[in-house]
Design goal:
The chain is an alpha+beta fold and 228 residues long. It contains 8 helices and 7 strands; from the N terminus they run H-H-H-E-E-H-H-H-H-E-E-E-E-E-H. It comes from Burkholderia latens.
């Protein structure tokens, strides 16, 4: 069973910004009884969390409500730190800056003993072997994905053949040491996956439309999108 403190936080999160949610729905999501939900909601209300509604009707949390600060286990903190350190190394400047900022915010809100443990975590992702040109490409693709801009580049496939590609970048995909982009390729008229390390200089063009059948969700449904 989920620890009660975690369950209380989950209830508040589940209620945030929703329409009325019944105790039975919450009980099903959390794998507890409706009676437990009633008790938890009452305790949250008594602690000052602005939950509206009542038993038998449903509950909701005001969209603008502030929640208590999160608490993390040692394992959760380690996972966050490792993920942030890997992004600092492999993710380009935008991901690296976001990872450093997020980790600093988390650390500043932790007790001194946990902050010390985080600083001493013996897991590292050295950046001395990372090509700055490669990181710049990751940043350029990241920006193009965010703003929906077409990009073109010379591409070298696994057999060494070169082609000029013009694509709609839909998302960044990380394959353990290798960044790729999922994209709609104008040359092939289909989804393709491109290894960023095999891409030449990137040129950014006009924006592409948000088109049915050419979205990231459509790409993700085609798990066998071939590497070209």
């Amino acid at each position: 069973m989920t620890r009660r403190a975690d369950r209380l936080f989950q209830i508040a999160e589940l209620l945030r910004g929703r329409r009325l949610t019944t105790a039975q729905q919450l009980a099903d999501w959390l794998s507890v009884s409706p009676r437990t939900v009633y008790r938890d909601v009452r305790d949250l209300q008594l602690s000052g969390v602005p939950i509206e509604g009542e038993a038998g009707i449903g509950y909701r949390l005001n969209r603008n409500a502030s929640l208590p600060p999160l608490t993390f286990t040692a394992e959760e903190l380690a996972a966050l730190a490792v993920g942030a350190r890997m992004l600092e190394t492999w993710g380009g400047a935008r991901f690296a800056g976001g990872a450093r900022s997020a980790l600093a915010k988390i650390a500043s809100a932790m007790p001194a003993d946990k902050r010390t443990a985080l600083d001493r975590l013996p897991v590292f992702a050295p950046s001395f072997h990372i090509d700055e040109t490669f990181c710049a490409k990751v940043d350029a693709i990241h920006q193009a994905v965010d703003t929906r801009h077409i990009v073109s580049f010379d591409y070298r496939d696994r057999l060494g053949a070169h082609t000029k590609r013009r694509v709609w970048p839909l998302g960044l995909v990380y394959w353990g040491g290798r960044w790729t982009i999922g994209a709609w390729c104008e040359l092939r008229g289909d989804f393709r996956t491109f290894d960023i390390a095999r891409m030449g200089d990137i040129t950014v063009h006009e924006q592409f439309p948000d088109m049915e059948g050419r979205r990231i969700a459509d790409y993700m449904r085609i798990a066998e999108a071939p590497m070209r």
